[in-house]
What we know:
single chain, CATH 2.40.50.140, five-stranded mixed β-barrel
Amino acid sequence: MRGIVLHVLKYSDKNSIAHIFTDARGRMSFLIPQGNTRAARMRNAMFMPLSILEFEAHTTPGRDLASLKDAKPFVQLCRLYADPVKSSIAMFVSELLTRSIQESEQNLQLWQYLLYSVKMLDSMGEGTANFHICFLYNLGAFIGIQPDTGSYRYRYWFDMVNGVFTPTRPTHNHVLNPDEAKALFTISRMNFSNLHHFKFSHQQRNAILDTALQYFRLHNSTVGTMRSPEILRRIFE
């Protein structure tokens, strides 16, 4: 089994709980032994946010927590944790995924997108400041909330509740005006290959992040208030 580490939470003096999105069973929770031995420190280093592991999983009927055996890196992330910008983005992505992905069932398309995204973040040079914008937009396709760009027309509004562009302003307040809707449509063309061509000011990048998170919260109540976006706002000043 392979998995991407989402979050590790201290459970007791002897154990932590690692939440991992796996290729075979979606999100799973594992009990991870703690300690001060060299082996324990090496094991802990494998469970950084977005680490990609290969392991055997053992489950016990009636228990929510599984156990790991023979865990080892599946992909070596060479730059992610040494680069302060990339590590800050990794914290944001891991927090968002921890809050937004709850399903304990196989989703190979989502797994493949996350695997590809983490590998791209690790290797990326130019355009890293736009990674989280591109990641957020394209994540929507895999969790069922991607905007319907086929409904876009010039000077249309964007209805954030229904995810569609409309010729008139919706009656609720969760809307983007025509200029903001045009910016959203432009962002929809972004991918990891061309994101370095998109130029945003610090203010624009923060506004895009705030709008994206508002959209995610509208469609997934578990996202809630996050801490890591404030780190991104500071690091890209």
